[in-house]
Amino acid sequence: MKKFFLKTEDSINIAVNHIKNNRKEVIILVHGWFMTKDSRAFSDLAKDFSKYFDVISFDCRGHGKSSGFYTFTSKETIDLKTVVDFAKKDYEKIYLIGFSLGGALVLIHSALNKDVDKVIAVSAPSDFNKIENQMWKKEAWLPTLKKFEPERWFSIRPSLIMREKIKPVEIIKNLEAPTLFIAGKKDPTVCPWHTEKLYNEALCTKKFELFDSIHAEDLYLDEPEKFVKICVNWLQSPSRNLNNQISEDISFPFHQ
Asked: What are the phi and psi torsion angles at 182 (to 5°)?
């Protein structure tokens, strides 16, 4: 695995891990708030996906080894664009997989730039201002404590939350890349109605998967084989064979 830095247009140094096996397709993993590319969850994700694709993971600004301060999706779109532009030099197909606020980022990037081939958004909020974030619930704080990693926790540098942000729900209709939406049925942080709303508003080829779990990378940690299989099948299936669908065990609607 190669480790290096990319510089954004606003002079932020973005730390990158690149697992390169000379394939023609690459997955770019995008973490959310309070995660890093080197956390156990994302290290394991990168390793599992590298059996099928090349993998690029990176620290958003204000996280891990990247410089700057985290802006809760206001400027992290610049970070992702920098990484996608780098990947364009070597790959025929680029896939984005984002988790939580990283899920919002992959939707925003794809809707605005239309330069990736497929997208997977996991626990993505439809609107940052409507995130529930019920941290007092044991379903929220217990998994957080179980994932305690001192080096990661002390690397986080937040900026002011009150910045202008693009709302994924307001631009989701511009999304053209086939997109897999994944949610956790018990998510106390970004309730599954967010994913339902994004799925319903999207006009692209799409699919909705619901896990009996909570939030973001926890869906992978709880059922790693199932999660990887669903994602790989979506990415490897020819686009012409993908049909708009909802998994049979999902009963809409969720309630806002």
From this structure: -125, 135
**Cis bond upstream, residue 188 (ω within 30):** no
Task: List the structure tokens of 183.
Answer: 């949610």
- Other CB atoms within 10 Å distance of the CB of residue 25: 16
pTM of the model: 0.93
- Residue whose tokens read 């109605």: 193
Q: In one letter, which amino acid is 14?
A: I
CB of 43 closer than 8 Å to CB of 15: no
The helix (run of H) or strand (run of E) holding residue 196 is helix 193-201
Average pLDDT of each block of 10 consecutive residues along the chain (256 residues)? 98 98 97 96 98 98 97 97 98 98 98 98 96 62 62 88 90 97 94 96 96 95 97 89 64 59
Residue whose pair of structure tokens reads 């140094």 in the numeric block: 13
Say if CB 83 and CB 58 are below 8 A apart. yes
Amino acid letter, 167: K
Q: How many CB atoms lie within 10 A of CB 43?
A: 15
The total number of residues shown for the chain amounts to: 256
CATH numbers and ranges of domains, the chain: 2-246 (3.40.50.1820)
**What is the DSSP track for 112-156?**
HH---SEEEEES--S-GGG----TTSHHHHHHHHHT--HHHHTT-
The residue among 214, 44, 55 whose CA lies nearest residue 135 is: 214
Radius of gyration of the chain (CA): 17
Contacts of 179 (CB under 8 A, 6+ apart): 107, 110, 118, 119, 120, 121, 202, 204, 205, 206, 207
* Residue (of 166, 61, 47) closest to 106 by Cα position: 166
